[in-house]
Amino acid sequence: MKTKQESIFSSKTLSYFLQLAETMNYTQAAQLLGITQPALTQQIKKLERTVGAPLFYSVGKKLHLSDAGRTMLSATHDIYEVLNQATDEIQQASNANTGVIKIGLLASIEDGAFTGFIADYYLKNPAVQVQLLNMTRHEIWEHLENNQIDLAIMYLPDDTIKNWKPYQSRKIIDEQLLFLHHNEKLAKRKRVHFRDTNESPWVTYPETYFLSHLLKESYKNQLVDYPHCVAQFTTPYQIMQFINRTGINTALPNSFYQAHQEQIHAYAVAFEPAVNFELAFVFRKDKDKIPRVAQLLAAFDEYLADKDYLSRVAENRVKLNE
Question: What is the pTM of this model?
Fold first, then answer.
């Protein structure tokens, strides 16, 4: 017969509870978990029977954590933290020249410098397998929290996560958004005010993407209406192709423009005030002490010391076109 502890911590009970606690929506949580809503409801009720108290309650259509639910959420986070620390301690004793390194790359980021680096790194370290995985912000934070990736490459500052205590970051480069347009009257400007950018339609990243959120906040802070959006794409390459064919406007990171300006058929100008952010590695604390991760980060520093980030992006683009 199962003990109470086995009933609570068996199978995917805690992951189901965490997903529902994050979304506060049975339908959405079930979709993210890849199960039916009745199956999720059954698992939560089973957990509530085991602990002897309701973990959620509803006010109208809105779901809330009960006092017991908040206690369970805190305990679950503590459990995951202990498991993650144990995993890190085990990995820290591993060999720097063997094993797997999993890297989550924000899907909207130009990947040229990183794919080029990984190819060079493999030639020097063939026994280390590096996996570069395109992810959304939500997926990156979920995988970091569950210790499913070693490093994330993403834009900062990111307000998706409120508790930064378990994490560290290492800046790669400073970034800036550029306004890409087809207005000859603005062609010679070095900077453009937000009010002069929304006369024509735009193509953007999806609303949940970091750069769209950053841009909306910038327009809001300048008390200017956000431009009318006619299309959305998840990669800068798709956006570039769309503006080339349609002649409408967008905003893309300076690094992408510098690397692809010969392919972009649009004028580029900085915003006034500037929209600044940074590209960085993000990882759980002490993850950089794991030998193979530490070695990879050191190798990446050397990679950029030889040629800067923009040069590496352009270099990889040229190789792909050969």
Answer: 0.69
